[in-house]
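Hi R.,

As promised, here are both runs. First protein below:
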Amino acid sequence: MNFVFEDKFNLTNFTSCKDINRSGISRFGISPLLTATNINCQLSNINGELNYYSVDEIIDEEYIIPTSVNHSPDDWTGYDPRVKSFFFYLNEKYLTDLRNNKAYVMLDQSLEGYQTPWLWEWFHKECKEWNVSPTRIIYVTGNMIADETYEKWAKDNNVIEKIKVIPYSHFELDMGMMCYEKIRDNHPLPTFEDHITHKTENISYIKTFACLNKRIRLQRVWFYNYLHQAGLINKGLVSMNSFDKHGYIFEGQEISKERIDEILVGLPLLVHEKSNNEFDDNFYIRRFNNQISLDTFMTVISEAHCGDSDETMFLSEKTFKVIACNSPFIIMGNKDSMEMMRKIGYKTFDGFIDEGYDHLPTHERLQYIIESIKKVDDIQDKLKWFSSMEEIIKYNQSVLVGKLFKLPDAYINLKNHCNHKNKIKNLI
């Protein structure tokens, strides 16, 4: 596969754009999918898969113009009139080759799962204005259901020439790499055997679950409210920072101010007396919670997205860090997240943990998770229960690390798409 850069040394494009997003990072950067594929090639001794060229070099074959797009589509597309369209920053060679169906531009938003209702229409409108076929646009995103929502939109709007949408959970590869490096460098994460030993020796103070919440999000306030109502806070290692007093309207429901006053008592709630906002976000993204996983029987993963109205499914580092630490889990995130985990190769814990919540609407899902936690809390011999999940727990960590030694599914999807389009062009 051929990739072309304006700055080949730094593997970047859109170098004329100096925009900084509201989150403080550059609007464009290095494609995470390309970075991950390069790592996979190195670990698997795959040579000649990725060919890098400078924009000044002559290339007779089709090529891809890769870039990361950072933060939400409001920031990187140009939909917001405060910034120009990303098309504006394509150099003349790129625009000419895109118009002549010789190049693709790959916009890689795999570090985020943002979805907006206007995105698909905007893409097609911009393609028309810049005289570029939508088939030349490749959109990689952390929204694992974006391809499905786009296909539905295209069908509903009778769209023939379509962009290519590729879901990709970059944090899976990122956390897998960190897990692999820790094992390789003899600084391993807790093994299943470590869990059994620690839990056996400290059974009297092992908590039923962990639920870690750093950044205040609507679903986290609501779930903390449900945990509080159910009397489960003391059954787990739960972290929760204090938050402002207002109604927290989420998916059509609002918490009363009186109720907010009740659940604010005792906040911030710390785990092991450690603050979770002393350092920058990158520190916490890369930190594995070894001791917390050892001190609990399972983890309720407080994901970044949860509401059905978000029209997304995002699996962040939070999910894959738990797998790396050999802990069973519930995902308090988007609908069908557990089904997606099975789809991408993992085993889940139905039969040990009630996963009936997975297909339910938002608030029903959160309340069902509460009931699932209660069922685990009621188990008399939790050590035996944990031990019975050995095969699943070990399998999941093996899958996480094993994916480092083959090309990412998202890259295979990209390659198959480009090769297919190229074959069709050659037949015409």
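And here is the second one, sequence first, then its structure tokens:
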Amino acid sequence: MDIQSKQLEEIKALMALFEAPGTLDGGGVTRLGYGPVEDEMHRLFRDWGERNGFIAYTDAVGNSFLENDAATLAAEAGRDCILVGSHLDSVIRGGRYDGVAGVAAGMACLKWLAEQGVNIPLRVAAFRCEESAAFGRSTTGSGLVTGTIDGDDIAAFTGPDGRTLAETFAEAGYDLHPQPIKGISAYFELHIEQGKVLESMGREVGIVEAIAGPRRFRIVIDGQADHSGATPMDMRSDALCAAADLILDVEKIGLSEARFRSVATVGIVKSHPNVMNVIPGWVELGVDTRGVNPDSIGRMEQRLRISAENTARERGVQITMARQYEDLPRAMSPRLMDALEQSAKDLGVSSFRMMSGAGHDALSFAELVPTAMLFIPCRGGISHNAAEYTSDEAICTGAAVLCRTLSRHQTGE
């Protein structure tokens, strides 16, 4: 695809707009959901919209929106608009492109369509707290307004400053029980792939067929804290050793279901008292299982529970396991997938249909309206890491495919 220099410069400017907040020495960014840095990212988003003649506003949970006049008029007339969205928060020491590239692409589409005189009702969203790094729950902003998350279920989740989500919302004036979002005919999201498929195949965009659903667990292991020097090896109830057995079993469980595109990861390990000369007496594990096959996800949970029972018996510890939450895997709209694919062909952009192992805000919308996701490659497949990178050209190419699809979708071509 021949990228227009003006469009590329606009993509560069949009990515530069969001560069400074949360920047860390040594590279990467930290922009935790519902924190001050994410607040600043949303302010930059809204200010850009107002400077460029669009309407900017914030909803009851802090999500930010930009819309053109056609979207405003459509809402007043009881008609729907198209929504393009992604997020502006990050994991701790994350990269600059996860989420931001999708928001920038939506902003570019809003501007390009206006300049082309294509007056379709279009709204662009920046959702809050898509990452689980802040409160242990992903897609919080989009989930609350779509009703896929119940505010009561997450009110007690605790953030890095020790405050609950309910306390954070109360201080900011947000509502854990918002009115459902309405007036949307379709949802689109552009995102970096966070994997190596597109790069390895030399394809410019990926058209997502389905998004994996996560099922996450909190496992607590109660052993006995004793003196590490005075307690014989055969008289110990070492919670961390039990955790080590369980961690390796989680890996085996994920490998056994890999043929169904399922994965299993222990992402959190907390050991107490965590000092050199004391046998660990208490350990907490956070386990993330994901897949697009519900039967496979169910089998992983069954095997994990069996592993916990066996480990508790063999190690002489107590293990409790609780499911924290789950999102069901969701298929994308076949009609919108076809539209993205046709737009890519029209522009001479190579594409590939694929699955998404990572969760996205699109997961929240997929059961409400026709939903589509477009991936662009990222270098080495690296994400959630300071080394995360995709080129401005890749973002511009993806945005161009998205922009053409939005125009064709609205006119019914």
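A quick note on the second one: The chain has a mean pLDDT of 95. Let me know what you think.

Best,
J.
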